Amino acid sequence: MNAFMKNFLRNKGAVAGLILLSIVVIVAVIAPFIYPQSPWTMVQRPFQPPMALDGFYFGTDVLGRDIGAGLAHGARVSLIVGLVSTLVALLIGLPIGALAGYFGGIWDDILMRFTEFFQTIPSFALAIVIVAILQPSLSGIVLAISIVSWPPVARLVRGEFLSLRSREYVQAAILSGLSPMNIIFRQILPNAISPIIVLASLMVASAILLESALSFLGLGDPNVMSWGYMIGAGRTVLRQAWWICVFPGLAILFTVLALNLIGEGLNDALNPRLARKGR
């Protein structure tokens, strides 16, 4: 653990990403306390520019809603969608990739053809179709993002299992009579966890972008405020009130950037030899 933290903290970009993400998480946690009113509440005149009024540091939108409240409450939505959809995608992709990589043969063919079926459909188009069928809601968005996100997990896990199943400790476990499930989840998976962790951090960023895109198109949950919805609501008045789109856009940019920097730092910390070769 000490070596991991040392390698991670050596990456200045990863440290900067961790600081940025920590700020976003803190804002999401304290959002109900700093903005107790609903972000949908009309609190002032429309189109008030940033810093024009005391307490409205980010201005107001087309209906007089506080942009700051929308940013704070939207952070909660983005993080929840990103984390939950990534977790669900991992729960789907991990078993499929593990079974395909460990057993091979007909199981590999069936599971990989099933995976490739989902990869042949553009992920964003498939997400739109799923959300439209399920009706726009937070649970529907999470499910749609999970369904389009699990195939890369399955392929990564399959590749790791193919390379690890022939190792000596796996063969020894087979000869000792351990069950396949025991070998998969106790012997091989712990040794394949490093690239999965890195991929998961990048998947959270992709999920946030996908949720923002769906909300921008009007397919977000109408009961919760999100950054994508704020950008979509302000795009028609961009010249008149730039701050309505710019601030949530910057929030998405910095959050996704932070997650990508953390992913890079995790990759360097978990694979120090590859990091040194890359340099």
TrEMBL record:
InterPro entries: BP-dependent_transpt_permease, MetI-like, MetI-like_sf, OppC_N
Signal peptide start-end: none
Keyword Cell membrane: yes
SUPFAM superfamilies: MetI-like (SSF161098)
Domain ABC transmembrane type-1: 75-263
Gene Ontology BP term (one): protein transport
Keyword Transmembrane: yes
Keyword tags: Cell membrane, Membrane, Peptide transport, Protein transport, Transmembrane, Transmembrane helix, Transport
Subcellular location: Cell membrane
Protein's membrane topology: Multi-pass membrane protein
Residues spanning the membrane: 12-35, 79-103, 124-149, 169-189, 196-220, 240-263
GO CC, alphabetical: plasma membrane
Family to which this protein belongs: Belongs to the binding-protein-dependent transport system permease family.
Name the UniProt record assigns to this protein: ABC transporter permease protein
